[in-house]
Write the structure tokens for this entry.
Amino acid sequence: MATSRGHFSSRLGFILAAAGSAVGLGNIWKFPFEVGDGGGAAFVVMYLVFCFLLCFPVMTAEIAIGRRTQRNAVGAFKVLNKPRWAFIGFMGIAAGLLILSFYNVVAGWAFGYVIEMLMGNFEIGTQFGDYIKDWLKIGLYGLVFMGVTAFIVSHGIQAGIERAAKILMPSLIMLMVALSAYAMTLDGAMAGIEFYLVPDFSKINGQVVYSALGQAFFSLSLGMGALITYGSYLNKDQNIVQAAAFITLMDVGIAFLAGLMLFPFVFSQGLEPTGGAGLIFVTLPGVFSDLGPNIGVIVGTLFFTLLTFAALTSTVSLLEVPVAYVVDEHKVPRKRAVWLTATFIFLIGVPSLLSNGASSILTNFIDIIGLAREGATDNSFMTFVGWIANDTFLPFGGMMISIFAAHIWKKENLSAELSLGNENYAGSFVETFINFSISYLAPFVLSMIFVLTVLSKFFAIDLL
């Protein structure tokens, strides 16, 4: 075992950092438009069920593997004398590299919007297509964002990741609570609350279930090695099950707050909640403009600052996964590993940067390679990378981690690790539930997600 890797100084530090890994653009940007497209409260109910029924057990398994081995996502399987299973870790690292390469572009959009809101440029929403086409400006924002991410990760676990999480996560929550409280004072806000909180179960169909399950799994950073890596920095006296429950609750709570904040804004302006991915970047600047020049600047700047903070908590964990691998397996000093890895990721993200209008080939990449679907409005290279990393690698990785933990490493060893710091775990209902979920439920459900995704994305076979 490595002795100089560093550890989180406290359970709170670990929970905030791991929750920060889970909380990101997926909660504040993606969750609300998924709710809007999924019919509102019925989607929310399905999302909550899947977070606790499926995602929580997989999370405990990932953290346990990391803490047991004190290694990165690849080295963990080698320490457990299962080197053939290290492909799971390699796939997770590859997914993290690819996700961060385009996630950083979207984070650059959010960071740029903070500046635009400060300047009172509420027309940026109607100019969004031109805004993301300006690759030089967005590239500069992304470069700054990647630099901040690398700076935090280069300072290690306690001085970097943990310290940043202790600042960013409470700030994020306070901003969201303040904006949610303000949104509820607007005329028409209650219509948004009703849409969001009063379920119409007749709207539940196969597509809603699939989307809710996918959103739950992806929003919790599962299947990419992040929680194995963070778990490897956790002390043996910490209660993993309790920590995983807190992380799940915090992630769900922040996604829930995002809906409480966004839908009153949308309904107060008489807008449709089915705005898709443009719900935030296209619609909200106009909403903030209607609040008046002074209030609009304040609320708009706060909102996109919040979005930027959320993005940063995720980019830190996405960068830490490959960095931990390079440090552990190749003995490269942390600071050098961080800056080399960050530079590499920024460079492989350039095609995604250019695929939003700057390059016609990259903007129409999916169409050019013959995978475009009728009615699709986004055929960019960035979307294609998301198909591979987010939609394909992650469910496959989560499925394989579940199979590994339950059937290769064995449930008995998992239970022994989860009992450390939790003397009441053995023989409890929670143990039975986690063992059942990772043995049968998670492998079955995640394999279905994987198969449905591959068939729909790459073979144009939609079974939903």
User: Anything to note?
Assistant: The longest helix spans residues 293-330.
